[in-house]
Amino acid sequence: MEKSPHKTTPVQSMRRNMCWRPDRILVYLGLIAILIFLHSGSSPTNRRIDLPPSTPDPLIPAQVWQLYTTVGARNTSVTHQDALKKTKLAANLAATWFPVDGAWSYRFIGTEFGTQFVKDHFRDQQDIVDVYTSLRVPVMASDFLRYLLLAGDGGVYADSDVEMIKPLHEWVPEPYRNVTRAMVGVEKDHPTDDEPEGWSFRFVQHTLMTAKGHPIMVNMVRNITDKMLQLSYEKQVPVEELELHDRDVVRITGPRGFKDVVFEHLSAQVGWSVGWRNVTGMVEPRLFGDTLVVPINYFAAGQQHSGSDGKSPDRRVQHYWSGTWRHWDESMA
């Protein structure tokens, strides 16, 4: 009678394979480590979640955008030299941004470059190009272009009346540098009788920091385009002939439109509805998925409301609220 073949156990088989296939040792060790972790007794509700260590490679491109645009004759180019000559404030504050620290690049752009940028980066979305080149309200054109620049290339955008206080590589706190793809700051956070809920809350638009193609910027671009086309359809006039009011600016390119898009993105990141009540009174940064929301003193220090402190060590920038966009078309007359 033939002897039945000797059966090996799974452990013996693994040992034999490990002896003959040393290249598999790391794989087995990895599997063992995973099993140990899964059976360590930690539940998803009480396990501490550590952020990954910071790395030198930024998620946000190392480039700064500032702009000086006109409305009306959209083919007019405003050079860096012209802008500094026209606006003394812009000249003084631009000096705080360039040359920027380390490997960061700096671009001060005019209307011609902005228009060409939009045509190049959004050539497959002609409705976006058409709406941008048709805008005739200075503040809306300025708002729209900043979102387009960051959606197309990413980096940091700052108005020409914003002074850089802290070096760019220090803006995102170290624990969050390896996960942050967008950084948005609180600008208003105080009681008011002018809002339905009795509270005024908005995010900063004069200073923005995002990765290329971040959903906040992409969604702002799409929302602005759709709302302008809808208005054009409702009033039966081309976009360039639309009669727009302050409320249109606020809800389309301005603070209300921006706030809605930010909260929509934060909610999508964490899986529950995020609103102003979740971020009011912030004193420390708070991460919502890939987006870091920072307290008012980071980007909006020195205001007479919302607990803003002009001497705060948290200041990344100082905004001088000069509203230079109001006179851009007049300055080029």
Could you walk me through the main structural features you see in this protein, from its secondary elements to its overall organization?
- The chain contains 12 helices and 10 strands.
- It has 333 residues and is α/β, with parallel strands linked by helices.
- Strands 1, 2, 3, 5, 6, 7, 8 and 9 form an 8-stranded mixed beta sheet that branches. The protein has a two-stranded antiparallel sheet with strand order 4-10.
Entry summary:
The chain is of the alpha/beta class and 333 residues long. It has helices at 10-20, 25-38, 80-86, 88-94, 111-121, 126-134, 138-152, 215-235, 246-252, 255-270, 296-299, 328-331, and strands at residues 63-67, 105-109, 155-158, 162-164, 182-191, 199-203, 207-210, 286-288, 291-294, 317-319.
Outline the biggest β-sheet: 8 strands, mixed
Please give the oligomerization state of what you see: single chain
Radius of gyration: 26 Å
Looking at the structure, what is the overall shape? globular
Class by alpha and beta content:
alpha/beta
Query: Mean of residue pLDDT?
Result: 79
| N/C terminus separation | 109 Å
What is the percent of helical residues?
25-40%
Supply the number of helical segments: 12
Beta strands, count: 10
SSE topology string: HHEHHEHHHEEEEEHHHEEHEH
Spans where pLDDT lies below 50 across 5 or more residues: 1-57, 72-78, 325-333
Strand content: 5-15%
